[in-house]
Design a protein that fits this description.
Layout (H helix, E strand, L loop, with lengths): L2 E2 L8 E6 L13 H7 L2 H6 L5 E6 L17 H20 L3 E6 L5 H15 L2 E7 L20 H5 L5 H4 L13 E6 L4 H10 L2 E4 H7 L1 H9 L6 E8 L21 H14 L2 E7 L10 H13 L8 E2 L1
Parallel strand pairs: 2-3, 2-4, 4-9, 5-6, 5-8, 6-7, 8-9
Antiparallel strand pairs: 1-10
Helix pairs in contact: 1-11, 3-4, 8-9, 9-10, 10-11
Amino acid sequence: MTRLKTAMTIIPVSLIGVPTDVGAGTPGARMGPDALRVAGIVQAIAHFGVEVRDCGNLSGPGNPDLPAVNGFRHMREVAAWNRSVHDAVHAELHAGRLPIMLGGDHCLAIGSISAVARHCRETGKSLRVLWFDAHADFNTASVTPTGNIHGMPGAFLCGYGPSLLTEIGGHVPAILPQDIRQIGIRSVDDGEKRFLAEIGIEVFDMRYVDEVGMRETMEQALAGVASDTHLHVSLDVDFLDPEIAPGVGTTVRGGPTYREAQLCMEMIADTGRLRSLDIVELNPALDLRNTTAELAVDLVESLFGKSTLMRLHG
């Protein structure tokens, strides 16, 4: 029987700006939230009949630009920002809204995803995290080459690290390795590779995408998503090939094309299960005429149901 694909359930959206690059090695991601606003993210989502509330920007400590201490740079500052993110994201979820965290660097996923995991525990939902990134972000203090915490959030969320960062959501670990699927990975440190294998993170790297295609990759990443699933997308814009997304501090060649990235978002929209979103690592200081921010907004439109045609599915 042929049916018309229906749009995702309309849930009011809350934008939460988090203007910090305290977890990154290159400054500039602190300007990301306003670049996304300039690129029209509010209007793009509202176009789909969604009520959008811009909650403004959170505040927190500045970037002290200090060297690592015991394997971590700026741990206390990172913890302060992530506690604020956790509280803001959890409040919007509790109010029945779909929070979009506008970063900021990817260390902020500690706060956003721990809040999502807490909400899932409170509501009895299962959690699926789709982590779009050029990097695995599963470093620990013992294997990190830099101490930059934007390369560590996955490890903290799975309970590996200091309590200051693993306990933000009130439950350790915040998520389990089987809750997360990583897509587009193409830069992993040596120690990180071993750690990923040991704890069993499912990683769809770019070789895998090249071999089977993005459609098959996404079908596997979304396998098991059901009506009781809270689907969280953590979108690091360095997931994209730097030829189309230059405005990031950690570019890695060989990323997905524009159409591959759009297909990812369209297939997520088809599930109707998107309930929270991170957009991180946009660095306007390195961008060209805000093109990377505009591309990120294009992808958000696809997440909310933009398509070329009204598609029929059997």
